[in-house]
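Dear U.,

For the methods section draft, I wanted the exact inputs and outputs in one place so we can describe them consistently. I've listed the two proteins in the order they'll appear in the manuscript figures. Please don't edit the token lines directly; just add comments below if something needs changing.

First protein:
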Amino acid sequence: MAAKETMTAKVMRTLRQYQMLPPKTAVLVGVSGGADSTALLHWLALHAQQLDISVAAAHVNHELRGAEADSDEAFVRDLCAKLGIPLHILHADVRGEAQKTGEGLEECGRRLRYAFFYKICRQYAGSRIATAHTLSDNAETMLLNLARGAGAKGLAGIPPVRENVVRPLISVTRAETEQYCREHGLLYHTDRTNADVRYMRNWVRLKIVPQFHRIDPNFEEAAGRAACALREDDECLRELAQQALRTAECLGGWRAGVLAQQPAAVRMRALYSAARSAGTGRLSRQHLQMLDHLLAKGGGCTLPGGCSARVERGILLFPEPAEGYAVPLQMPQTSLPNGRILCIQTIPKEKIPKEIRKCVFSNCLDYDTITSDTMVRSRRAGDSFSPAGRGVTKSLKKLLNEKKIPPSLRQGLVILSNGQNILWIEGCGPSEQAKVTPRTRCAAVVTIKECIGNGKSDAR
């Protein structure tokens, strides 16, 4: 029989597999004083020189358990002093904050903890936050998420890496961290509320997990393998969803027909990503099904966070209520009231590509037509426009109908104008008078950067 893998071997393998702690990394360890975080802090301190990392600790006194919480804090102070580890401490009135925000105590405590960790990490470039989540925590999370009807992402449990948060103990069980503490003579504190089965996680840990151990004594390890497989599948499907969004992208949104052709697993992830980028709140399966229905039937629906979605003229979009505006053009960037930014880059005559001279590039216009009184504005009633190369002047309404631009997007289109003369329109290009010609001395390339979370790409 092969020898059982040690905790050190497991942690080293996890660090390598997920590239958690590159050399020279500053690592901030969240330490509660329990067996898991005590073992993690001691292990990282013991191997810091070998890994070429620096280690600091952070502890949050949630002020929920009175003298017991103060005892945990004193224990962590003493532990860090013995290990020679710098310690950051936060006192947080979690109960008072939760009452203000309407959050649960657990949710509020977690938010305050991570805000504290991130604040400290901003002091160090390339830093990481290390939390002591174990294989046992992961199995419990998987069961809780299963009961809530989660998909692959939720059933995969706790991710080993999330942004700059790493979980070096994610392949180690709680029993192994307790054994590590015994082997190294490490004391640790046990939160008495861990035995309170009124908390759902405790109930799962104390009542449900033992039943799974009757099926497989190594249940946590089996759950860990399942989580890894689910995570790999989900990552693959999410990448396919992003590819589908890139393929379907068009002015203001995404072509519904292209998304509708995707397999359901890819389509639902694409819809989730598109909606979340538009600033929606938390989406349920029902919300995604509503969006999916729009792809086939059109129409609109309301989503969490005060957002709405529509499919108009075959385009899925997340329109924002648009108000009229007019602001002076500023070079090279003009900030617009809706958070977008209009950018103008100049190109001298000798560098103007041949394609621009032929007016193929709809985002280019003759720089000399831009004057000191040029405005950046939204659409107005009665606007008319002479598109470059068309030899006609049309009402803007008729032109946008021809372009099949959805009505809900039209008020948000960006227009460059001198008085009543429109020089350029987003999605339509330059006017006849502003187009690039062989006589153009300098061209202006117009792009628009979107504000983050607007449901659109970063620049057009």
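Second protein (the one for the lower panel):
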Amino acid sequence: MTAGKKNPFKGRQSTAEIILWAVRWYLQFPISYRDLERMFADRGIQVDHTTLFRRIQAYAPELDKRVRPHLRMTNGSWRVDETYIRVKGKWVYLYRAVDATGQTIDFLLSPKRDAAAARRFFRKALGQPHTVNPRTITVDKNAAYPIAAKAMKRAGEFWRFAKLRQVKFLNNIVEQDHRRIKRLVRPGLGFKSFTTASRTISGYEVMAMIRKGQVVSAPANDMGAQNDLIAALFSAAA
């Protein structure tokens, strides 16, 4: 796997191995930046929690971008739902979709929960290399989804025979999957800005994809292979 010509670790005082270790641990386990600082101290490495925060903000979206081309194809049965995330003391909406097997299709953090936001999410999902135009889209009773889906059918963005199903119990698979993200968000006690939330959540989501085994070379629950994958994506020693 190639990681591009630009060295993402240029100018960093810590080694690539240490930086990626921090990124992996923070994005897959429910810990705070201060917890991570103490974990480093236990290994004899002094890194301030504010420095760790800056590194996660830099590398989480970069990991998301680099892993996308290597994801397995998802299927055409979409299960779509949104959950709530607190940002600056207010609730914003995290749109998420998985396929019928639980593989992550895509996600989008939005300040609003309306037809325009739903359409932005659908468009983002359709633009990914690991997705297909859906046969069925299962959603809850949110009236914004039918409006968005109809508009996209008229525009030729969705297959015209795609079926939108508003059946809540069929969406249990995505509602259960929300718990993974909620568990990771909790130690941070909310985000200070929308940008911070977006960057961090992109890291949570992509690490979840990797842990689910959505990359062929990194089977689910194979921590060694997953670590090697991330190192290869950044052209760093594992």
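Candidate sentences for the figure legend, describing the second protein: Strands lie at 77-87, 90-99, 104-110, 136-139, 163-166. Residues 27 and 56 are 8 Å apart (CA to CA).

Thanks,
Y.
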